[in-house]
Specification:
By secondary structure, the chain is mainly α. The protein contains 13 helices and no strands. The longest helix has 19 residues.
Length: about 260
Amino acid sequence: MSHHLTFPKLMTAAALAISLVACDEIDPKATSPKPTVSQTPMVSPAPAPLPPPTPVLPPKPEVPTEIVKAETDKPEPFVISEEDKQDPIKAARATLEAGNKEGALKLAQLAVRRTPKRSTAWNILGRVQLQLGQRKDAIASFEQAVELNPRNSYAHNNLGLVLIYDKQFEEAVDELEQAVELEPVEAYMWNNLGMAYEHLDRLQEARDAYSNAIEMESGRARDSLARLKGVESVIRTAKVEPDKLLVPDHQEDKSDKETETKTP
């Protein structure tokens, strides 16, 4: 067998070699399959909403270390001075006149504790209680004052005054008649008596009491007497309740010279 190739075989071998060289030169990427493209266009998802911006707050002011009292703070408690302790009755009058009712009450209570048998101490206590609206307590204090000293005209007047406020007009007349009998020169006592009479429709007696007060220069009594001119009955003619016709006079308790009832 001959080892030499025939011409046709050589031509076939050459064609195969050229084919192999051509395959080496082909880009493998060019022969890879292309991805299939969808016909429906892709829609991008909507972006998520952004969070609201964080507000920038101004710095908080520093808390002052000094505490300032507000107007609504409670006033300092009333303290009885050593000087007031020497004469609590006089101090209670001055404190009440100054408008400090709570302080006057403490002083009056001290006066009653120190001198429970003194009519004037009970009288000033009743005055303070009346100013504080403690009507029942005031009546009890004034009753104690007149019991200790039946000649205390100021206590009789004050008891009559608070009884007018309490609409006990008959009892008020009894006390006020004693007051003007003991102290006939005090205009406000006559004026208060006139009002007690008027509430009971005792108009002529009211006119007489007002006339006595007018002689002592009482302008209020003059107005009251002018109002009653020609009036036959307050109860029938008054457009308001009888207890609202007049406001009783408030008095100054000027008695420091009263005679105390001696007790064993």
